[in-house]
Design goal:
Length: 399
């Protein structure tokens, strides 16, 4: 157990509330596939996935095979979607742990078929989902009309006596926010076209899934996705990630940045990153703090030491820019963040003492620091802020 006073509290009640809100935000015909990849966006999948299972989640989404195995160990019930394909040496674990892989490359089908045959599995006994590339150019088989040969040559691989069964068809949109901007949507058109081809070839998958948190909480185009699924006799699922953990995407709408607003109340941040003051000192005017002496005291200055640095995921770009919360007040980060430590200016906060709790991300009293705030100061997005909190920071479940 880590005794260093830096940790992240994971509010299981907030996660539960967020998941319930997202379920309510979707019409009953739409299923949810909550995403717990990247260790549940840094929130610890072993804490979060069982909460989602207990709330009735039928599916969970992970990235690699190892993540799938870790989640399966704590979640016996739900189907686990392996969203990054399969690589050599993984097909056996896919079968043993009942993972459902996304496939699009012929070699992935080879690996799975081979492993299934070795296990003596019968026809259509190993469910897989096929990804359609609707514009990300990352994973998936091309949906372009003039380049349908890849899709056409994949489809017969799911015919009897193949052990593989095409259980689902999915895509990942390059611009979920673009879905908001009306009926003209090339991503959806490409998906519709690929789906038509799949059905024409006689396959009858059960699931269609697409769309992330934004599609779920805001999407007027949910309706188009839903009618696409209903017309094809498929069940639709959306795959929320970020919103589960308490943040909503921002998108450009008529040139204006705004939050997606139509889940009332908005989701609650699940993670609070904390530390404690381990040392205090006073600088005289003119004295410096930290590497390269980038902080110079302009007056008598009280500094507090926190045992959290960039090796814990506290982005070094927050040096002399970010702040933490102490006694409910903002304490600016003074000087360069070190690998394992940082120093904050508490001159304006009377009474700070060794052992005081500091909040690096999340709420303390009336104030809070959001992942969006840190993302803007460090030139990134809240997804990365949350995933960057280091593995050596223990995640502690709280209600
Ligand atoms: C990460 C991911 C999501 C979730 O996206 P959010 O923006 O976090 O809601 C959905 N689908 C796929 C394929 C993903 O990789």
């Amino acid at each position: 157990m880590s005794t260093r006073p830096v940790w992240a509290e994971i509010s299981l009640s907030s996660l539960r509330a967020n998941y319930r809100r997202l379920c309510q935000a979707a019409p009953p015909e739409i299923g949810l596939l909550p995403i717990v990849k990247a260790n549940a966006y840094g929130h610890d999948a072993r804490l979060c996935a069982p909460v989602l299972e207990a709330e009735g989640a039928q599916w969970l989404g992970v990235t690699g095979c190892e993540e799938g195995v870790r989640v399966r160990a704590v979640c016996p019930g739900p189907k686990i979607l392996l969203m990054s394909g399969v690589w050599e040496g993984e097909a056996e674990a896919v079968i043993a742990h009942r993972l459902t892989p996304i496939v699009w490359e012929p070699y992935q089908l080879d690996l799975l078929e081979e492993a299934a045959r070795q296990k003596g599995m019968g026809p259509a006994s190993l469910p897989v989902h096929m990804e359609i590339d609707t514009g990300m150019a990352r994973q998936g088989t091309s949906a372009h009309a003039e380049d349908a040969s890849a899709l056409r040559s994949l489809l017969p691989r799911f015919n009897a006596p193949s052990p593989l069964r095409l259980e689902g068809v999915m895509t990942h949109f390059s611009s979920p926010a673009a879905l908001l901007s009306g009926a003209e949507n090339a991503q959806l058109d490409r998906l519709a076209q690929a789906l038509r081809r799949i059905l024409e070839s006689g396959h009858r998958p059960e699931w269609l899934h697409a769309g992330n948190s934004s599609t779920l909480v805001a999407g007027p185009d949910r309706a188009r996705l839903l009618s696409l699924a209903i017309d094809a006799h498929l069940r639709l699922m959306l795959r929320p990630g970020l919103a589960l953990y308490g943040y909503l995407d921002r998108f450009t709408c008529d040139g204006k940045r705004s939050f997606l607003e139509n889940t009332a109340p908005p989701p609650e941040p699940v993670l609070t990153w904390k530390s404690r003051v381990t040392s205090l000192r006073t600088l005289r005017a003119g004295e410096s703090a930290g590497y390269d002496a980038t902080f110079i005291a302009r007056r008598t200055t009280r500094l507090a030491l926190l045992p959290a640095g960039y090796a814990d995921g506290l982005n070094r770009l927050l040096s002399n820019r970010g702040h933490v919360l102490l006694r409910g007040e903002p304490a600016p980060i003074a000087g360069r963040i070190s690998m394992d430590q940082s120093v904050v200016d508490v001159t304006e906060i009377p009474g700070v003492a060794i052992g005081d709790e500091a909040v690096l991300l999340g709420r303390q009293g009336d104030r809070s620091i959001s992942a969006w705030e840190i993302a803007e100061l460090t030139g990134t997005i809240p997804w990365e802020v949350l995933c960057s909190i280091g593995a050596r920071v223990p995640r502690i479940a709280v209600e």
